[in-house]
């Protein structure tokens, strides 16, 4: 998933129950723009998945049109927004802790407007205003166009809320302001919401019905990124394989239907030097057509995030994932056959309701069957309102959940190391993303399979260019090498 995984991430992963969602928590998003006199200042902090980060860029774009500037320091802001995640209880707890810090600032500066956006806003709605007295405005993910009006309401001394979900909103016409970007890799939202009802998951409740964005606007956004010098785009959706759009073609003289494989092809054809990634694929929906499209185009990366959640068919059924162990294995076999060398990553939940030791073992044997390049692993966290919360008992003791989780982590660490070791002695083509986090003397970048590679910087190669890097050694998270002669 492109730069979704920050350098060093896999090391962190070994230590705690954290996701890619939570890794980038609490990042303040700022843009460099000339400071206008008297403009109001917006501070926006995002939690959760890449879709939330992409939404913050939409929010910034909407408020920039209203004359706001972004700031990286909430203490100098007129408006502080926190774009929130509800996926697990600890994600929500983190947001509440942060809100209490903003509360202290508000006591110092009573004019400060504090807003809660995103999935927690949608889940808790007006309860937020009752529970957290310092919050002035609560806005769900489909209501960001209403922000200027809602801020106006707060300025008149009222509390403001809009948590209406929409069946149509895709913000297709809003060009996101690229916040904190490296100018090389970017995310493009291709759809919103989710129509699957995985029994553990809060997303269908917080993000609403699935809808696909007009492909013309997706292609225009990708082209604009290419024109600005970007070299990699990641197409984002909760289930990209169910992308489907029906409407007029570019000339508006015929009705066309575009599925995900076709969209992927169109984006790949824009520019042969633009790398294309995507996330997330759903095992029940990923088609051979998608796999053949990936195989056909060199610039579509050989990397698929295909969350399995559990290796047991009985647990998968309780999770309402609508595939079995055998079906998942069939999809993995198809990937191996059609795209040899394709990296595969996963999300895995430990200790879902009623999971037995044998079923947990099936998850471990599934991990051995696939040999995941990476995996994001979680302890099951019951979410209010979900099917599982209503129908199943969260009966696996915390101790058992965390022991199972650590067995999964250990296994994944072995596989991550093994997969990375397969690259030692090879020369890989790396898109240089910038200086490494640990040293200014090193560059970092990724190969096609999404492995992070660190190597000594060279004056002859700049970030945004490709480098051929000879891999000398690796850790379980990073490949280390030098630019090949
Ligand atoms: N749309 C993606 C998942 C988005 S949420 C998909 O279908 O794969 C990211 C991950 O969080 C999920 O894959 C799942 O592994 C995890 N997750 C979601 N709800 C959870 C819960 N209640 N407890 C623990 N992990 C959860
Ligand atoms: Fe949640 Fe399932 Fe939708 Fe993914 S596919 S967002 S896990 S309901
Ligand atoms: Fe979290 Fe909402 Fe994303 S619950 S993972 S921010 S869709």
From TrEMBL:
[4Fe-4S] cluster 1 binds at residues 49, 85, 119. Gene3D superfamilies: Methylthiotransferase, N-terminal domain, tm_1862 like domain. GO terms for cellular component: cytosol. It is an enzyme of class 2 (transferase). Residues 421-485 form the TRAM domain. Residues 40-156 form the MTTase N-terminal domain. Its EC number is 2.8.4.3. Binds 2 [4Fe-4S] clusters. One cluster is coordinated with 3 cysteines and an exchangeable S-adenosyl-L-methionine. It catalyses: N(6)-dimethylallyladenosine(37) in tRNA + (sulfur carrier)-SH + AH2 + 2 S-adenosyl-L-methionine = 2-methylsulfanyl-N(6)-dimethylallyladenosine(37) in tRNA + (sulfur carrier)-H + 5'-deoxyadenosine + L-methionine + A + S-adenosyl-L-homocysteine + 2 H(+). Residues 180-418 form the Radical SAM core domain. Keywords: 4Fe-4S, Cytoplasm, Iron, Iron-sulfur, Metal-binding, S-adenosyl-L-methionine, Transferase, tRNA processing. One of its GO terms (molecular function) is 4 iron, 4 sulfur cluster binding. InterPro entries: Elp3/MiaA/NifB-like_rSAM (IPR006638), Methylthiotransferase (IPR005839), Methylthiotransferase_CS (IPR020612), Methylthiotransferase_N (IPR013848), Methylthiotransferase_N_sf (IPR038135), MiaB_methiolase (IPR006463), rSAM (IPR007197), rSAM_horseshoe (IPR023404). [4Fe-4S] cluster 2 binds at residues 194, 198, 201. It holds the Pfam family Radical_SAM. The keyword ATP-binding does not apply. It is found in: Cytoplasm. Its cofactor is [4Fe-4S] cluster. Its main location: cytoplasm. Belongs to the methylthiotransferase family. MiaB subfamily. Catalyzes the methylthiolation of N6-(dimethylallyl)adenosine (i(6)A), leading to the formation of 2-methylthio-N6-(dimethylallyl)adenosine (ms(2)i(6)A) at position 37 in tRNAs that read codons beginning with uridine. Monomer. This is tRNA-2-methylthio-N(6)-dimethylallyladenosine synthase. It comes from Pedobacter nutrimenti.
